[in-house]
């Protein structure tokens, strides 16, 4: 892995076939990587090569192709484990996406709460009056599963409120962590505000109260060096499609001793030790959470995406996006009639910015920009409570990545400055 803190996005763009196109007669300015990143050619090639040369079921059969497929599948696990600082490959569980990974933890805790997996799983069991804590800024994937868990177990669902700019602080969280808090789930990086949470400090506070820490790392794993064990969290989830890989694959990382004690979410083939007509025993982690046929070619391609990111260097990606974040926020904040949510200019944030244009709906803003070949995300970004707290129904979000150029941001800023006049509200 390189440790360079500089990258050349113009050079990297040549690696991405999807960026070599025009949209509505303009060169594509893809500023929606926070939703789904484009894929480099090496990732596309890796998946096709596997399908042509090694396509077979994993951990089944004794023929040559099955052996090749299984080897590639487990090598991918090792590659991803190293990428996030796992102590062993067994701490990496394949899921269908990050939403699935977070549900796996929540439903596993729910199963423990009804006695499944006892006695090992009793450490997870929730009872009436126990507390689950999230933040008001969470993506629905890290909010709704915990609401459901509270409803099933009688636990109390609580949340850290955000401030007028959509941010929250360690002190805000500390005020709500109690000795009854059993789970604290929060995002490393907000997909709306770009707030970067001080994970180590929050994890230490939560553990002092005896709580498990569940991290949504979807907006951090693709963009900055990540050592989950060093951060002190217990579980973390992220998605392949946000980090140059295919859709249909997610990752759950968990501390080995916790994964081995957590009851499974899905059951069926490939995750069992023995099955009788009156009982079933399950394999240890990670296999106990990988029931059924897995998306093997996508997993192999995700490993190739990780190798690509390693070659570029996450330090360089992070530095590049920090610079572009400030370019975005400073430029947008200077435009009359635009409100940027999240940390102010000059304050560290991830490489994204969500904004409201006074008098123009976000969908209209997005269509106006799209007419100029600029792709952004519009809507509530799966964070309705946060938008409601900010008095907004929707925002427009521009998100950067390693292939984003300053010229693309300048095109966005120019388009954003023209929106109100175009719709006759300036």
Features of this protein?
14 helices, Aspartate Aminotransferase, domain 1, Aspartate Aminotransferase, domain 2, 426 residues, four-stranded antiparallel beta sheet
Output the strand order for the largest sheet: 4-10-9-8-7-5-6
What is the third-level CATH name, the topology of the largest domain?
Aspartate Aminotransferase, domain 2
How many H/I helical runs? Answer: 14
Alpha-beta content class: alpha/beta
Morphology call: globular
By CATH, the architecture of the largest domain is named 3-Layer(aba) Sandwich
Q: Which band does the percent of strand residues land in? A: 15-25%
Instruction: State the share of residues found in helices, binned by percent.
Output: 25-40%
What would you note in describing this structure?
Catalyzes the removal of elemental sulfur and selenium atoms from L-cysteine, L-cystine, L-selenocysteine, and L-selenocystine to produce L-alanine. Residues 30-412 form the Aminotransferase class V domain. Its cofactor is pyridoxal 5'-phosphate. It is a single chain. The chain is α/β, with parallel strands linked by helices and 426 residues long. Helices cover 37% and strands 16% of the residues. The protein is built from 14 helices and 17 strands. The chain has helices at 9-13, 41-53, 64-83, 98-113, 144-153, 170-174, 199-208, 228-231, 256-261, 296-312, 314-333, 362-370, 384-389, 406-422; strands spanning 22-23, 26-27, 29-30, 92-95, 131-135, 156-160, 181-187, 212-216, 235-239, 250-254, 272-275, 280-282, 338-340, 352-357, 374-375, 377-379, 395-399. A seven-stranded mixed β-sheet has the order 4-10-9-8-7-5-6, with helices on both faces. A four-stranded antiparallel β-sheet has the order 13-14-17-16, covered by helices on one side. Strand 1 (22-23) and strand 2 form a beta hairpin. Helix 4 packs parallel to helix 5 and helix 11 (314-333) packs parallel to helix 14 (406-422). The longest helix has 20 residues, at 64-83. It is globular. It starts with 8 loop residues before the first helix and ends with a helix. The model has no long low-confidence stretch (mean pLDDT 96).
């Amino acid at each position: 892995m390189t440790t360079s803190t500089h990258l050349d996005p113009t050079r990297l763009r040549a690696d991405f076939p999807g960026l070599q196109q025009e949209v509505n007669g303009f060169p594509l300015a893809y500023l929606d990587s926070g939703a789904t990143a484009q894929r480099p050619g090496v990732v596309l090639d890796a998946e096709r090569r596997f399908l042509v040369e090694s396509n077979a079921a994993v951990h089944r059969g004794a023929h040559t192709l099955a052996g090749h497929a299984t080897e590639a599948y487990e090598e991918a696990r090792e590659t991803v484990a190293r990428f996030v600082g796992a102590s062993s490959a067994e701490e990496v569980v394949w899921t269908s996406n990050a939403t699935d990974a977070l549900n796996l933890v929540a439903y596993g805790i729910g199963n423990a709460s009804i006695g499944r997996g006892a006695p090992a799983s009793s450490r997870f069991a929730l009872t009436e009056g126990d507390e689950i804590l999230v933040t008001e800024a969470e993506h629905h994937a890290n909010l709704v599963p915990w609401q459901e868990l509270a409803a099933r177990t009688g636990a109390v669902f609580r949340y850290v409120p955000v401030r007028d700019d959509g941010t929250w602080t360690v002190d805000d969280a500390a005020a709500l962590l109690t000795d009854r808090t059993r789970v604290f789930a929060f995002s490393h990086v907000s997909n709306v505000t770009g707030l970067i949470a001080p994970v180590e400090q929050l994890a230490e506070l939560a553990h002092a109260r005896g709580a498990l820490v569940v991290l949504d790392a979807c907006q951090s794993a693709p963009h900055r060096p990540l050592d989950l064990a060093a951060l002190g969290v217990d579980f973390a989830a992220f998605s392949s499609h946000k980090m140059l890989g295919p859709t249909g694959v997610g990752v759950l990382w968990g501390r080995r001793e916790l994964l081995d004690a957590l009851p499974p979410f899905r059951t069926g083939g490939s995750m069992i030790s023995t099955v009788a007509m009156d009982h079933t025993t399950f394999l240890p982690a990670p296999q106990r959470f990988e029931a059924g046929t897995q998306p093997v070619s996508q997993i192999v391609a995700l490993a190739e995406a990780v190798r690509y990111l390693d070659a570029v260097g996450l330090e360089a990606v992070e530095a590049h996006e920090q610079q572009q974040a400030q370019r975005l926020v400073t430029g947008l904040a200077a435009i009359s009639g635009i409100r940027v949510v999240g940390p102010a200019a000059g304050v560290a944030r991830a490489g994204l910015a969500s904004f409201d244009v006074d008098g123009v709906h976000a969908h209209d803003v997005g269509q106006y920009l799209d007419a100029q070949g600029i792709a952004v995300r519009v809507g509530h970004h799966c964070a309705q409570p946060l938008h409601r707290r900010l008095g907004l129904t929707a925002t427009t979000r521009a998100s950067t990545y390693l292939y984003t150029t300053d010229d693309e941001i300048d095109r966005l800023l120019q388009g954003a400055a023209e929106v109100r006049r175009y719709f006759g509200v300036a």
